[in-house]
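INTERNAL TRANSFER SHEET
From: sequence group
To: structure group
Subject: Spore protein YkvP/CgeB glycosyl transferase-like domain-containing protein

Please process the attached sequence and return the structure record in the designated field. Keep the field labels unchanged so the import script can parse them.
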Amino acid sequence: MKFLIIDTYYPSFLKSFRHKYPESLGMSYQEQRQFLLDQKFGTSDFYSGNFKKLGHQAEDIIVNDLYLQFRWAQERNFFVSESRFKARMRVLLRAYHLLGPPRWIQEIALAQIQEYKPDIIYIHNLTIFSPDYFQKIKKQCQFVVGQIACPLPPKIYWENYDLIVTSFPHFVQRFRQQGIKSEYLKIAFEPHILDLVSKQPRIYNVSFIGSYSYHHKGGTQILEDVARKVKVDFWGLKQFFMSPFSPIGRRYHGSAWGLDMYTLLAQSRIVINRHIGAAQNYANNMRLYESTGMGALLITDMKDNLNHLFHIGKEIIAYSDVEDLVDKIRYYLEHEKERAEIAQAGQQRTLQEHTYENRMKELLTILAKYL
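Return from structure group:
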C-alpha cells in the first residue's frame, strides 16, 4: 500500500528550528524535509519509516511549516492564492481556531496529495483541514484515517473520516456511538533513537519535559506542589498564563525538542509523568514510552489501564497523589540499585513491545478490517 502521513508541528519548535539552522532555508524541499525529520520531533518519520520497513510505500508532509511548504510550491511553480504575509500571520498567531485552517496549508497539501496519489492518507491533526477542503481530499484516495490524542474538536472536523484511531480507550466508544469507525492504537517508542543519542551520565535526579497549557492545568498543579518539596528540573513549552511565582520557574530551563529532549531523558534518573485532563482514567501519552525507552525510571500517575502497558512496581512506578509522588521520588533517589533495576526492566518492556514497528503492524491489521 501507498501511505501519505500528514502531520503538523508545534509552531514554537518550527521557529526554534529555523533560528538554529538558518542555512535550512537555502535547501531544496527534499533536503529541508529530511533535515526537519532528522530532528526527531514528535512522531517524526516513525510511521513512514516503519511502513517502509514492512514493505509499503510511505511519505511525510509537515503541512504547517511555512518555509518548507512554500519551497515545494516554488519548485513546482505552484501558485498559492494566500499572500505570504497573511499566511505568516496565521501561523504566528496560532489562530487556526479563530480564522480556520490557513488556505495555503490546504491548497499546497491538496496539490501534494494529487501528485503523490496515495492509497491511504493518515492525518495526525483532525482540524488542519476545513470540512469543505476535507471533502476534496477524500476524493483523492481510497481511505482517510484520522488520529487523535487530545481534547476532541467539534464534530464537523471528524465526522467524515473513514476511520479514527486513538490512544484514548474511552474515545473509541464515543466515536462509535456517533457512527464513526474507531480503533484503539497505543503510542510507542522508536528504538533507532538509541543509536542517535550516545550513552549519557544521569546528571539530573528528577526531570519533567512537557507542556503547561490550560489543558494540563491539573497536572501543572501537581508539578508545582512537588517542586515545592523536591528538586525537579523542568523543560517544555511554558504558557503565558503560568504564574511568574510558580515554583516551576525556579528550575525551568526552556524548551527541549526532538533529540535534545531524548538526550535529557537519557540524562535523567527519574522522569515524572502526568496526563492531560482529556485522558481521564487512562494512561496514553508519549512520555510513558519516551522515558522508559531512554532508560529513565518513570514515575507516572495511576490509571486504570496502566498495568496493561507496564508491570507497576517492576517496570515503572505509579503514584496516587502529590504526597505519594514525593515519597516515591525520595525513596528511589535513596535506593539507586532498585531504581536502576526497575528502569532497566521498563526499558526492556518498551523495546520489546512498545515500538513503532509493532504499532505499524497493529495498524496494518486494523486497516485490513476496513479495506
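Handover comment: The longest helix spans residues 336-353. Residues 193-353 form a domain with the Rossmann fold fold (CATH 3.40.50.2000).
Transfer complete.
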